[in-house]
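Exercise: predict the fold of this chain.
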Amino acid sequence: MTTVGFEPPPYPYERLAGAKAKAEAHDGGVVDLSIGTPCDAPPQVALDALANSDAERGYPASVGSPAYREAAANWIARRFGADLDAGAQVAACVGTKEFVGTLPQWLRLRSPDKDTVLYPSIAYPTYEMGAVLAGCRAVAVDALDAVSPEDAARALLLWVNSPANPTGEVVDLGAAAAWGRAHGVPVFSDECYVEFTWNGRGRSILEHGSDGVVAVHSLSKRSNLAGLRAGFYAGDGDLVHYLSEVRKHVGLLVPGPVQAAAVAALGDDSHVDEQRERYRRRLEFFRTIVDAPMPDGGFYLWAPIAGGDAWAFTEDLAARGGALVSPGDLYGQSGAGWVRVAVVQPMERLELVAERLAR
């Protein structure tokens, strides 16, 4: 008899195949608002650096080149007023999804007496899946003051995400840092949407000191460079050193030309200002279509569904409007009764959905 071990669950977005087929049947095809894949052009300065880096032949440093780490540290200082040692407190990652998905296994090797990953109850699915893949307990958190003493004692790490995917919530990062320090739990703050903060300025957990905390950033959203897989993590020097040493042995490398493109993109804020306005216009327009509030941050609308059947709403919107959105329970059972709408299509495509529905 064959023993069956772990069987991966269906990838969340594959559950949308039926609704996608309905949307694709429209003249003009599907308007895909289900996944946060940027559609707009990356900055030319990054593309020029990518094409002319002369970094194709050699193996890049897993931790990131000095220029890459310096560019990240300079951006953090410019954006948040937090000063870091680029050589000791910043390191590269291959985008950030792989970092999120593999982090628990690296930390558990270091702390085998800990087995719990704390993450937001409505969240990006990879926080939970990273725990599962490491053989850890995944414990969803509604509020920090509701975390049980047992779960806090067993916690490998706490994930926070601000602005949050899918809700757009701007989290109290100072409170999260304080909770982690009080309980001896490392706090990892996923801040990949921070450049698109609508409620005040963008905020980082690093503004509250680096002890016991690590901020995770990506150029996928900020600079429309999702296909290049360029990210970095920064903060507590001990954590950054440990993780960068482990990751060397796995061969997790950001390609040299990609690092050059990232350096150029991190040094330019003008393209981010332009992208921010694009998303603001799309959010303001499409929130009237799905009856959603303006989020505090991010480029997702988090829309409550009358009657609570988000899957029926998703099928209906696909059939009538040709738009594909994501039911909220893809982000945890607490998200049932909501849908997430990623405004990552050009305005003319969003207007096409409105026209189809008006007919």
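Check your answer against the key: The longest helix spans residues 270-290.
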